[in-house]
């Protein structure tokens, strides 16, 4: 019953966002900037015992000169080209243990897991911006305008990482998939929107969408709590409310969604109080490529049992 109620409520919902008139130009220019970035990278072997895999730290220089660190794991025995997989982690975290990716490497994938700049991993954040730097990264740079937003750089890092993976001699550039949960789910979708050669996406309760709706829902203890923090300490009388939300529109996933060409599997937890279902439908409903939403009615922003088994065949099928 809950599933049907939610579907009926949000079947036509496409978000409360107001797409800026220059939104597409903004991202087209950003991608032109990315075109000027080198696809060169540095591999540093990491000695971890394994009969099946080789492990590396991979470093590249992203936009604004940031040194981005990734994990790169590939099969020891490679014949011809292998499929590639990109992985993105949750908010404030890192790419985890190398061993977490072994199940995919044993299936023949070359896996690239990206540390988001300035979060829990080793990647650098070179963002310089006015305003608060204390309470979150969505609002980092918002007081200087769209070009200074932290997530502009992170979004471009996702496409840069995809291009590097696709450029590797051992990787089949036509068989690259992306997956992640929460922030990682959002960045997986962003990656597919900005690098449209990506073929498949598995996104679990993605973050970074429909900021006006989140604020309207008054969710101050969720991953979006920094929105309320900004008003409380930087704009307590909401004199700059419209400017604030208008700027965040440039990093709102709902506006990038129409660019996605990949096939998408989307896991949604209907008790999610961190990334509310409404904010996810705002994006999902604007994806025109093949897609499926997988529902977990009694679950929140947590481990979703049996999801991995459900999507495994989808990711393994490279046809």
Automatic annotation (TrEMBL):
InterPro entries: AB_hydrolase_fold (IPR029058), AXE1_dom (IPR008391), CE7 (IPR039069). One of its GO terms (biological process) is polysaccharide metabolic process. Substrate binds at residue 91. It holds the Pfam family AXE1. Residues 7-315 form the Acetyl xylan esterase domain. It comes from the Bacteria. One of its GO terms (molecular function) is carboxylic ester hydrolase activity. The active site is at residues 182, 272, 301. This is Acetyl esterase.
